[in-house]
Write a structure and sequence with these properties.
Blueprint: H1 2-16, E1 37-42, H2 44-62, E2 65-69, H3 73-81, E3 87-90, E4 105-119, E5 126-127, H4 129-136, E6 154-158, H5 164-174, E7 185-187, H6 190-199, E8 203-208, H7 209-212, E9 217-219, E10 221-222, H8 229-234, E11 240-247, H9 255-266, H10 268-276, E12 280-281, H11 287-313
Parallel strand pairs: 1-2, 1-3, 5-10, 6-7, 6-8
Antiparallel strand pairs: 3-11, 4-8, 4-9, 4-11, 4-12
Helix pairs in contact: 1-9, 9-10
Length: 316
């Protein structure tokens, strides 16, 4: 409880207090002409989770308009840093040591989960963490191995290793940001990947629940736990992660407005809007923050147990 109170206090301080700005010499492109407009870029998952609805309500209340652009979590961090947008959204933390992401502030607003998606007519219903690992390493190649039909699996993956989904999956399941994936096709963003799974009976892939749940696909249970609201909120569904609002502190003429928007997103009204989308507000499940180390240990133990059982019985 004490740790949770510290986290909440830190969030409130970050969005309302006057903080010391870091030394930097970023140039400021001309995005600040209209004080009543905020330009946002970020991952489609964050946009679908809460940003579109929060922005619409914020405009009604305060008269401030948002221009929303997609592009992925990396753009949601790096376009804030290079000042081509005022505010962003990301579904991954900053990459340590990446100059393109240095000094960007990130405030968590909601919780998302990584979900395994298949075509709606696919008979498969559950997948283990060990099977996810084997699938992405190219060790599982036929749907029979996952409870499906006798057909080759087409694994669809995100391009690169630093997308929100790709980096989170690598960290949670492998603990290795450089893990290679053996996929059938690569996609530049989550939207086209999700759409391809809607249309391909043999396809499988992973995306964020906040986006995937709005598609006409089947979401597999993971280790017997469905990716529903309560399982994500409680941490029983293991592959959860925060969704962030990103911004710069220094020389930011929109800083006061951005902080007011973040306060709105974390407020009672803002959390109601987020819940209405089927998404867990960050402050509703603050305990997940302290459980994240436990989360990674649980993932590791389950993988080891599956591997040991498989070695003893010959089962996957």
């Amino acid at each position: 409880m004490k740790n949770n109170l510290i986290i909440v206090f830190g969030l409130l301080l970050a969005i309302t207090g006057v903080q010391a700005a870091e030394n930097q010499t970023d140039s400021l492109p001309n995005i600040n002409d209209d004080p009543r407009t905020l330009r946002w870029a970020g991952c489609g998952i964050t946009k679908k989770a809460f940003m579109k609805e929060l922005a619409a309500e914020y405009e009604k209340i305060y008269g401030v308009r948002f221009i929303l652009e997609g592009g992925g979590a990396t753009k949601g961090i790096r376009r804030v840093k290079d000042r081509s947008v005022n505010i962003g959204g990301a579904c991954r933390p900053k990459i340590a040591g990446a100059a393109e992401e240095r000094f960007v502030r990130m405030t968590p607003v909601a919780w998302d989960a990584l979900v395994v998606m298949v075509h709606k007519d696919n008979p498969a219903s559950n997948i283990s963490l060990k099977q996810v690992k084997d699938l992405y390493e190219g060790k599982i190649t036929n749907w029979k191995e996952l409870g499906g039909n006798d057909a080759p699996i087409e694994l669809l993956v995100r391009k690169g290793k630093i997308s929100g989904v790709g980096s989170t999956l690598r960290q949670l399941v492998w603990g290795n940001p450089d893990q290679e994936f053996t996929g059938s096709a690569e996609y530049p963003s989550s939207g086209p990947l999700e759409k391809a799974i809607e249309e391909n009976p043999n396809a499988i892939g992973i995306s964020g629940i906040s986006s995937a749940r709005k598609r006409d696909v089947k979401l597999l249970a993971l280790e017997g736990k469905t990716p529903d609201y309560e399982n994500i909120k409680s941490g029983h569904y293991l592959l959860y992660r925060p969704l962030y609002v990103t911004y710069m502190m220094r020389d930011n003429p929109h800083l006061k407005e951005i902080k007011r928007f973040i306060s709105f997103a974390l407020s009672k009204k803002g959390r109601e809007i987020i819940r209405a989308q089927g998404v867990v507000p960050y402050l509703d499940a603050i305990a997940l923050t302290s459980k994240q180390k436990e989360q990674r240990e649980t993932v590791r133990q389950l993988q080891e147990q599956r591997a040991t059982k498989g070695a003893a019985t010959g089962a996957p």
